[in-house]
Every structure is written in C-alpha cells, then in structure tokens.
Amino acid sequence: MSSDDTPNVPTPRNSREAVREKAQKVHAQQSRVRIMRRIILGAIAIVAVGAIGTAVTLAVSAQVSKPQLTPTGMADDGILVSEINASTVSSEPLDARAPDATETATEGEAEPTPAPTTASTVDIHIYVDYLSPDAGEFERANARQLVNWIGEGAATVTYHPVALLTASSNGTKYSLRSAAAAACVATHSPAEFYAFNHDLLDDQPEMNSDGFTDSELADIAGAVGSDNVKSVRSCIEDQDYVTWAKDATARALEGPLVGSDDLVLTSAPMIVVNGEVYVGALDDPSEFSQFVLTVASDAYYATATPTPAPTPTPSETATDAPVEETPAPSETPAQ
User: Fold this and answer.
1) How large is the angle between the packed helices 229-237 and 214-223, nearest 10 degrees?
2) Closest among 116, 167, 159 to 139, alpha carbons compared
3) What is the structure's pLDDT at 263?
4) How many angstroms separate the CA atoms of 125 and 276, rounded?
5) What sign does the dihedral 34-39-44-50 (CA atoms) show?
6) What is the pLDDT of residues 230-273, one digit of tens each?
7) I need a surface site. Which of 64, 183, 237, 263 has the fewest CB within 10 A?
8) How far apart are CA 287 and CA 294, in angstroms?
9) Inter-helix orientation angle 193-202/133-152, to 10°
10) How far is the CA of 163 from the CAs of 15, 54, 127, 246, 296, in angstroms?
11) Cα→Cα distances 330→65, 287, 326, Å
12) What one-character-per-residue DSSP string does 98-144 give?
C-alpha cells in the first residue's frame, strides 16, 4: 500500500548544489571583507604619506626661508682683539719689557716676558675649538702675556672659532654650537668677545660630555657684561651662526690660512705667527714668547732698509782741481 506522506528528502545532486552555493556566498563575503580591508589600509597609508610629505615640505620650506646668516666684524672668519676688550680679562699685566742684548738677568731672578719690539706689530692668529683641552691649556698659560702685548701695541691677536670636535659631545654638537655662540658675541657685543672667549676656554666642559646648553652659553655671555644681552641670547639660542661655523671650519681645513700661502688647519689650537705655525709647548709661555720674538726678529731683519751713507759736509769735500793763485800786484815806479 502506497502512502503520500513520503518525506521530501533532497537528492544527493541537489545537496551538492546547495553546499556549493553556500560556499560561493561565503567566499564572496570574504572577498568583500578583504577588499574593504585593503581599501582602508590603502587610505591610511595615503594619509600617512601625505602627512609625512607635508611635514617634510614645511621643514624644508622653513629651512629655505631662514637666511644663511654671516657674523659681522669677523674678517677672514676671525675677530681681531683690541686693547679695550683685552683689558677686561687681566688686571695684572705681565712686566713685559723690550729685549735688550746688553741686559742680563740677576742671578735667581725670573726674566720678564718680553714684548716683541719691531718696526711693525706681530700678527698672531689663534684657531680654537672650545671643547679642545689643548686650546684651554694654551689660553690659561698665555692669556696674560697676550693681553700685555695687545695693550702695548706689540702684537695683534685674532681668534678664529672652529669646530673640529663636533662628534665628541654625545650628539649635542657642542663644538659647533659654541663656535656659533662666539660669533654671536663678536657680532652683537664685540667689546666682550675676548672675555667670553677666555671664559669658554678657561672653564671648559670635558671631552665626550654634553657641554653647555645654548641657554647656558647665553648665560655666560651675559655674565661677562654684554651690552646687548637680548640680541646675544636670541642669536645663541636660535643658533643663527651654526651654518657659518660649519662653513668657516671647512674653509680653514681647505686653506690657505690667513697670512700664509699653503697652511691648512690640522688641529685646535693652531697658532700662526706671521704665517709660521707654533709647534712648541702649549703650556709654556716662555717658549711661546721666545718663538714670537724670533719670528718678529726675522721679519724685522728681512724688511730692514739699508742705512744710507752720510752726506759729507762742505769742509770734508776735497777737489782735485788746482787752486788758482792770485797774482801779486805789480810795483809802479816812483815818479
């Protein structure tokens, strides 16, 4: 006996098609999810790249718009120290007398540091890196006699800030920043340059330390009595002359240095006297003084004018022409 209540069971073929259709729907949904994810990630990447590009553009624009400043009052990348600003450093100048070959020092008495005495002043150029221990040593040993020579007009002294030890301050670039700070003082408060220069060399930070911050450098400049404190501080903290300091160092390394034909910067300090490099002890003022005297003497005798022969006086003039005798008057016969 047949029955009409037979359950509607799908055939195997219909079952496979249903599974396939469901799988296709799942696959399509996953594909849409992947596409949306890619679109979102792509949009995020585009936004990020755009933000980075904008930042770079703004940074470059700011750098380009900021002029490359050059300090004033610094001929050949150096500042000439005058008698006025040198006198602020030492209130007890050395007893510097002119050398006299006939004078001998009393036994047991220290010889004074002589000032070079020539027809013209001695030209001294000192290249300093404010992080260099040797530069500090030379300044401490020779500052007083340099001040004395400047005061007497026996020598001109020009300081050239350079940056050879930029990589020796834990990434703070102290050599570069301090050289730039010296240029700020030379530009905005030149009368205090020597005192600022002396303080940076006399009380130096140690090698491979951070060195002074820009704010601390500005404080030191203010402490020496700068008459233009705001401009000096702004110049130092804004690093106005950092690019100049870098370029000035490159020029010195390329040479020639001032007053020479072929000298180039090889170390700091480097002291050049009338175009000759001092290679003696940096902490011995007597040895440096003797070097300066020798260079000054060589320059003097090299340019000395021969003494003209004295003009004879009329009484010393002799002639070879015979002197004509006056004939005796003839006698007239008496009348």
Assistant:
1) 160
2) 159
3) 96
4) 10
5) positive
6) 999 999 999 999 999 999 999 999 999 998 889 999 999 999 99
7) 64
8) 11
9) 150
10) 84, 33, 10, 7, 30
11) 111, 87, 12
12) PP-TT--PPTTPPPP-PPP-SSS-EEEEEEE-TT-HHHHHHHHHHHH
The model's pTM: 0.67
How does residue 295 score in pLDDT terms, banded at 50, 70 and 90? very high
Give yes or no for a contact between 140 and 147, defined as CB atoms under 8 angstroms apart: no
What Cα–Cα distance (Å) separates residue 5 from each residue in 12, 15, 301?
Answer: 20, 21, 138
If 0-12 CB within 10 Å is exposed, 13-18 middle and 19+ buried, where does residue 246 land?
Answer: middle
Rg for the chain, CA atoms, rounded: 42
C-alpha span between 126 and 265 (Å, rounded): 11
**Residue 166: which region, alpha, beta or left (left: phi > 0; alpha: psi -120 to 50)?**
alpha
> Position 196: which residue type?
F
Looking at the DSSP assignment, which residues form a beta bridge with residue 155? 122
- Residue 319 predicted with pLDDT over 60: no
Q: Identify which of 149, 137, 174 has the alpha carbon closest to the alpha carbon of residue 268.
A: 137
DSSP-assigned beta bridge partners for residue 276: 273
pLDDT of amino acid 196: 95
Cα separation, 128 vs 137, whole angstroms:
11
Residues contacting 197, CB < 8 A, separation 6+: 128, 139, 159, 161, 182, 185
Strands 79-81 and 276-277: unpaired
Six-digit token string for 11: 């055939």
The per-residue pLDDT of the chain, averaged, comes to 79
| Torsion sign (Cα): 167, 280, 183, 87 | positive
Name the strand (E) or helix (H) holding 50. Answer: helix 12-65
DSSP string covering 157-196, please?
A: EEEEE--S-TTSSTTS-HHHHHHHHHHHHHHH-GGGHHHH
Going by C-alpha positions, the residue among 175, 170, 173 that lies closest to residue 129 is 175
Predicted pLDDT of residue 226: 73
